Amino acid sequence: MLLTLLWSRNRIGAVSGGTLAPSPSGAKDLWDFYFAPWHEVGLGSKSAAPLWMPIIALASFFTLGNVSLFISLFFIAAPVLLFLSGHHLVKKVSENRFITASAALLYAISPVSISAVNSGRFGILMILILAPFLVDVAMQWRKVGEFSVRKMSALSLLLALMFAFAPPFLIALLLLTLAAVTSDVIDFRRAPDKPRLYSLLVRRVLLVLAPLALTIPWSLEIISSPRKFLIDIGMLLPGGGANLAFTANPGGAGSLPWWLISPVVLILAIGLFSIERARKVALVGGSFICLATISSTFTVSGKGTTSPNFIYAGVFISVATIGALYCGVTILDKVRERLIATHVNYRHFAVSALVIVSTIYAATASGWIATQGPESPLQSAQGEVLPPYLAIETQSKTLVLRERIIGTTPSLSYYIARGSDVSLGDADVAPAEVSEIVSSVTALADGSGVNSSKTFAGYGITYIFLKAPYQGALVQTIDGLGGFTRASSTASGIVWKVSGATGNLILTDPSGKSSLLAPTSVPDEYMVTTAGVVTLTESYSRSWHLVQNGERLTRIKSDLSLPQFAVDEAGPVLLIYDGSVRRGWISLHLIILLTFALFAAPSGRRKREISERELA
Prior knowledge:
Blueprint: H1 2-7, E1 15-16, H2 27-35, H3 52-59, H4 67-90, H5 97-108, H6 111-118, H7 122-130, H8 135-138, H9 149-165, H10 169-190, H11 197-213, H12 218-224, H13 242-246, H14 264-271, H15 276-295, E2 299-302, E3 305-310, H16 314-332, H17 335-340, H18 346-371, E4 379-380, H19 388-391, E5 397-406, E6 409-417, H20 435-446, H21 452-458, E7 461-467, H22 472-480, E8 484-490, E9 493-498, E10 505-508, E11 514-516, E12 518-519, E13 525-528, E14 532-536, E15 544-548, E16 551-552, E17 555-557, E18 563-567, E19 571-577, H23 580-600, H24 612-615
Parallel strand pairs: 5-7
Antiparallel strand pairs: 1-4, 2-3, 5-6, 7-9, 8-9, 10-11, 10-14, 12-13, 13-19, 14-18, 15-16, 15-19, 17-18
Helix pairs in contact: 2-3, 4-5, 4-7, 5-16, 6-7, 9-11, 9-23, 10-11, 14-15, 14-16, 15-16, 20-21
């Protein structure tokens, strides 16, 4: 508990940083975001909000709907929850309290646990907390044909919960299922008189497909872009590469340094030569260490950016760490009696090495947590990126630039803000990067962006905000380019106004002159002053409609992949986004969810299961 308080001393209050974006003010905001058919993120997105958002909204009931307070308390209590979860698993393996408590402590301060807490990886923490409760079921994988409908339904709900918080979990589940199916086929060939192979295969396939069905339509978007199976929820941060992953350290921001090596790999290696129960688990854990190492050599892009990032293999390392936890306790349980009964051999040296390495790691990791852990990316009072005067204009798009030095070369990173900073869930629905905007931002850095202002104006970007700190050369370059007027310069950064007509709806008359459509007193209604073409500066979607005189105007896709509408006469027009498709998917999702919940709910005994004495 003392270590947890020292670790969390800089996380008192609303936390953000790493992969965790700032939380909204209340649970209602999460519900609105989840049900919304269109998200004002970047240039706009119709992507389905992930299922973990309403789950967090429901969980915030314990903090009276205060989402930021719930998340802050969760990360403060995460080490304790990890300890209790690990202890729940190992207490069934050994009755030695010292061994089980020590193992649970090592689990709570394992490299992947430390990395998940320090970098704000909510999903990885959920896997680490929930997965130990699945080990009992995993040990019964040969008996899946005997599972009742209620147990299958409850297990499907739990697997869907874990998949919703960590998409790579489905890869781990699929690999474990393939191994189980292979074993089933081999056993069936050896003894055909065993239970029907078809029944086992159906149940195993159901446990893989159920998480996908229980998370639609979000799961369909992941299937349509398979690389998303390798990306965790939240903002995208890279892992540390294959070398660290091989030591059961996912690496990346907030992770342990390379020289602080955990005993996970050593335990799995010793487990391969231990008793049969430990050997099987060690084989699974070692396989996932290899999978984590291989996957960490690849890069992936997403979350609205095309920049490559090394895959963060946190889920695979989590499974391996749980395997090491189980193996370690199995090896040490009653080991003294076994060693006394034998002559000195390799087992004596292996157990001694395991205990020494684990003790050294526990001491050094605890010291690192107490001294360096509070300086992790996840902290409270991070401050806002956008200055208040830009946050007031909620309908304006602001291109936020940050200058970074990679080695000795300066580079620019950016995102498009819509009157506020990035919020929880925005990264998970962010649209893909637009190549024209990427080229224009690059041109700003090298001074060749003569036409950058026209590109920005075409996408409705009103302001450019360069976040401090920055170099003077970049400021001079933007000042020297045409199409940008400096609006303000403060300690937080510099703001430029993009020249030309910028905004949500742009009218281009027959002469080619562009003007911004002014809204009327009626919500979502705008006044068209002359015939022409109206361009909506949002990502293209067939659900966008512009209505005039009760009729929908013809919609086309512009050269910039924006929706355009031909207006033949002046007068008011109504902008509508048809969310019926989103509502239909949500209805289907609720039907599937309620069906599984109904089958998983406790039920009364059948009459034939009640004895005659009870009936009498």
